[in-house]
Design goal:
With 107 residues, this protein is an alpha+beta fold. 23% of the residues lie in helices and 29% in strands. The mean pLDDT is 90.
């Protein structure tokens, strides 16, 4: 996508841009990661795929890692909590309203 091409222009060896299903992250990255930034539209994917993606993301994060997720709904806290020790979110006042979730494995 165009967005991925823009991100690839950032010259930082720590940044890995993947334009594929999040379920395939282990095909690209073998080690744990410190941060996952996601805009996956959870409302548009099946519950099974949603649970797989959240589980894989949690497993890929280091113990001090953070997963950031932007969604248009605040209904996903209960989907994230079984996989993370701490889940918080903030409402971003925009049109449409967005919710910025921060999930961590450590308390």
């Amino acid at each position: 996508s165009d967005f991925c091409e823009i991100l690839r222009q950032i010259k930082d060896g720590r940044l890995i841009v993947i334009n594929d299903s999040a379920k395939n992250i282990n095909s690209y990255i073998n080690e744990e990661v410190e941060i996952i930034i996601s805009t996956i539209p959870f409302t548009l994917i099946s519950k099974h795929e949603l649970n797989d993606i959240i589980k894989i993301s949690s497993e890929k994060l280091s113990n001090k890692g953070i997963m950031c997720q932007i969604l248009y709904s605040n209904f996903f806290v209960n989907k994230l909590k079984p996989h993370f020790n701490n889940v918080s979110y903030r409402m971003l006042l925009s049109i449409p309203v967005e919710f910025f979730y921060v999930c961590t494995k450590s308390s």
